[in-house]
Amino acid sequence: MLCVSNELLKDAREKHYAIPGFNCIADVMIRGILDRVEKLRSPVFLMLFPADIDENTWWYFSSMVHAIADHYTIPIVLHLDHATNHDDIRIALDHGFTSVMYDGSSLPFDENVEMARKTVELAKPYGASVEAELGRVGGYGMETAGNAVSNILTQPDEIVKYVERTGVDSLAVSIGNAHGIYPQLPQLDIPLLKELNAASKVPLVLHGGSGTPDDQVRAAIETGICKFNVYTDNRVAMWNCFKTLADEFDQFERGDPPPAVYLGRLQETVGDVVEAKATLAGSIGRV
Question: 237, 236, 219, 241: which is closest to 228 by C-alpha?
């Protein structure tokens, strides 16, 4: 059931829960996510991160999701995460993505507004929804623990102008959250979030959902967050599973353990992260 995000996020905002979004790549992650949210009756965002894309990923990833979506009975938003150029957004829309994010957080305010507005224009003929980012969510790149990007907190007075001038459907905000692995525990600014939610006409999104203490995530959802993103927690869980599997199968008699066994374990590992995050989001049983 592929769909856009608008009605899903509207419902989440009205009923004070959030929809989890999971960055993923390849079938083992896609199936691990979708099989579990189907059981949980939770809507979900399947998200593709630009750093994970090579020349074949566009058609492979999108074709796979489109081919299997009707097998599931829960709403699935096929989302391009953190695009920083319109070429990627056009490709994603042409491949049937139902939602795209333009990340202009590194740009001055007026440039961010203009690029997000153009993204909305691009997406409109496709009926796709658009997420953008105001302020800057800091953190680390996907491949290194160095070269951290500093946070720039979102300001309430800018939200009103930004949403009116861009027409975006949802907005990622910076309230002390960060991408990647936290070097120390974050402290989300919930009072600021309360102001942002009151000022915003559109649902708010929390990036950097991995590693944030559960009590802070719950507080953020109660204060207006309608979607939160997860990638690092799945990466860490899968890598730990790989290492465990390597130890377990090291003495396998033939030296080539059945793929269904270890791939199944990886899918279950992803599914366990998904269930924990859906429980935290309050999205279980919302379908």
Answer: 219
Q: Tens digits of per-residue pLDDT, 154-201? A: 999 999 999 999 999 999 999 886 755 555 577 889 999 999 999 999
DSSP-derived letter for residue 246 is H
| Tokens matching residue 226 | 């309608």
Report the domain count for the chain.
Answer: 1
CATH classification at residue 81 = 3.20.20.70
pTM comes to 0.92
Of 81, 103, 169, 189, which one is the catalytic site residue?
Answer: 81
Angle made by CA atoms 182, 18, 239, in degrees to the nearest 5: 40
Compute φ and ψ for 125, nearest 5 degrees: -65, -25
- 90 inside domain: yes
**Identity of the amino acid at 127:** G
233 among known catalytic residues: no
